[in-house]
Amino acid sequence: MTTAQAHDVLSPVLPPTLRDAPPRVRLSVEYWTVTMDGADSCGSCDETLTALQTALAQVRPVAQALGIDVDIVPRTVATWAQALEHVIVASPTIRAEGIELHPMHSGDTEARVWWWRGAISDTVPGQALTDLLVRALAARSRRLGVYLEQGGPAPYVRRYLQVDPAAVMPVASGSGCGPSACS
User: Fold this and answer.
1) Sorted alphabetically, which Pfam families does this protein's record hold (predicted)?
2) Which of 113, 98, 89 is nearest to 32 (CA)?
3) What's the number of domains the chain is made of?
4) Hey, which end of the chain has fewer CB within 10 Å, N or C?
């Protein structure tokens, strides 16, 4: 397919401003910890978060090339009900696009055992975090592609969607009578 053919195919699907630039979407990576003794984290969880941030720094250029902005979203649970609701079995737990990575806790100890590709470690393997992020990016990119290939929002709905809400906000001028000019 030539570029012109691709443009013709996308023209009815995407609003004019999206035809020239890929849409940007968000991938949320949930970083779950359990509140312990009043603290939302511990040394081991802090090390894991640092390793996740390092893995994300490696993967972020690929995400940006795909039009995906990746955020780490810290989440905590403090009660049995919350653990049940969010299906938390270990701390920390990392989730994105239905993919999950968490350690095993041995018995009633704080010791963590991470399994990845047949290897066992007491700290999260950086490659395991990179793998999770790459697989989540692929899943999010695939979902975006399918959504756009299927036409995205219906034409009726598109009439009400704004590409950039800030672009349609009125600009205050000294001569107009806006909400603050006539107060």
Assistant:
1) DUF2703
2) 89
3) 1
4) C
Contacts of range 94-97, beta carbons closer than 8 Å, 24 or more positions apart: 94/29, 94/30, 94/31, 94/32, 94/48, 94/52, 94/129, 94/132, 95/29, 95/30, 95/32, 96/27, 96/28, 96/29, 96/30, 96/132, 96/133, 96/136, 97/27, 97/135, 97/136, 97/139, 97/140, 97/143
Residue at 14 is within a domain: no
Residue 40 lies in domain: 22-158
Greater confidence (100 vs 167) lies with: 100
CATH of the domain at 97: 3.40.30
- pTM beyond 0.90: the answer is no
Looking at residue 24, its pLDDT comes to 85
- Taking each helix axis as running N to C, give the angle between helix 126-149 and helix 43-65, from 0 to 180 degrees, rounded to the nearest 10: 40
Residue 166 located in a structural domain: no
Structural element, H or E, at residue 104: strand 104-105
User: Is residue 110 in a domain?
Assistant: yes
